[in-house]
Amino acid sequence: MSDKSGDLDPISTALVHLFDSMLKVAVRESSLKIPAKLKIDFQRTKNREHGDFATNIALALAKENERAPKEIADLLIKLLNSAKFTENLNEIGIKKIEVAGPGFINLFLEQQSRGQVINLILSNLENFGHSNLLKGQRINLEFVSANPTGPLHLGHTRWAAVGDGMARVLRAAGATVSTEFYINDRGNQMNLFAQSIINVAQNKPVPADGYNGEYIKELANQILTENPDFKKLTGEAAITKYREAGYKLQLSEQQQVLKDFRTHFDTWFSEESLYQDDFVNKVIEKYRAKGKVFTEEGAIWLRTTEFGDDKDRVLVKSDGAFAYFASDIAYYTSKRDRGFDLCIYLLGADHHGYIARLKAAAGCAGDDPEKNIKVLIGQMVKIIEAGAELKLSKRAGTIITLAELVEKVGVDAARYTLMRYPTDTPMVLDVDLLKKHTNDNPVYYVQYAHARICAMLRNAKDLSVTVLKHPIANQYLSLLGHEREIDLLSALSKFPEVVASSAQLLQPHRICRYLEDLAGIYHRFYNDCRVLPVGEEKVSELHQMRVTLSLATAQVIKNGLTLIGVEAPERM
Fold first, then answer.
1. Which of 23, 188, 266, 549 is the most buried (most CB within 10 A)?
2. What is the pLDDT of residues 424-461, one digit of tens each?
3. How far is CA 443 from CA 370, 388, 399, 421, 429, in A?
4. What CA–CA distance (Å, rounded) separates 287 from 366?
5. Opening angle at CA 523, ends 466 and 564, nearest 5
6. Helices within 227-323 (DSSP H only)
7. What does the alpha-carbon distance between residue 56 and residue 63 come to, in Å, rounded to a whole number?
């Protein structure tokens, strides 16, 4: 039997241990049969009428024992309520256990047990929500990976936010994560980039398949200012020098823009470096040794169809030139050689066909395509302003750049909104909405909840309402019995589970949606439960407890915002 919750929630962990002990008694005394791979799983309920926790263990035992789930649930509850486990129930703070529906077991907590989450938050502070769920996993997370031939545009922007948020969430779940930007600095596009700069520098038209935009003029001017002797260069010498200079300047700009966007990369990996020391050929020979490489019509192929690809892929063309897929398999091999267990690729909407071929490459390498590689596709983002879609960029001459988006709405609004939706769905980013300081703007709604609590805490200090020191005794925790207080405690308790599921499913948007729910629950609590004394009212233990609850809520909001790289302001 295994425990899904791990160190995420002390109460659910204690419940797992309790049920484990109880099942051993049930085997001895009631001849209950336990499946070999039974997972004891507890979920916090969405509806408080169904208790605080629920488990489907009786349903999981029904088939093995050829008995109705409700019958098994009644048996388990009878055992739990026996004298054998009275002390355990009291320690956990279980008030009531009942059967619901076809055989779910619902558990209701004593009020002080619900309030223990406050002690947990105030003990762990910025680490509340972190776990060891993915401890031991070494993950390479590659995203953005733009060509160094122009500014980062709106298509890159979504992954710049989501990829960074995903890395933060995975680390919070205990994984070792290395973020990586794959620099596509090989191929004819680099020569076209150089020729475009040269033509602009020489007041000539840009080649028909070259690069346009104000940024090309800026690069040409900067290169000539820093290297006036380049004016004398011609032919291949000019291409080489302008390519090196333009590449360096453009990559530097991309790095700065991403840094300003709070997107960090541990490694900037050059595609060109794969071709040093004959690495690509060595990789091809490794695949050949596994029987996955063949030669046909003068070209060298990889047998990707053996692992579900729609066709085999060319590695070396008949003219001896490397196909782009040769870089793909070499890059994947490099990641695995560097010790990563899981390689995650975050690719744009136009790369859907890469899913099958990259997974097949992993299979050809002898890896498990379902375990060692994950390919996610991000759908398109549209940006609208004044009701109309924006497509043209002042600098790039094409779609809006990341820098222009940040200039319009700010880093917090851009990151939060881009991370708020599942990446497999297209999204529309409304500039006018994101500039509003109203509850219609999701990022403002969440940040305002944090700022509101901080303002209240400053007022509490002025009124001599002190925060209770933790660990807070049960007599104080028992004071939190109002419906709104219970809702808030329940919401705070779910944060570790939300972080864990966000990491396991690679869906950081779950953090955003949780924060919006939590902000709404806190606002309702604040409106219905008087937190600070009014007029001549004396400071009570309830005031102190509610202020302490508010402090714990602010900590969780801040922790959530930190996981998505958004600031938690104390004043707004």
1. 549
2. 999 999 999 999 999 999 999 999 999 999 999 999 99
3. 35, 22, 24, 13, 13
4. 9
5. 90
6. 235-260, 279-289
7. 13
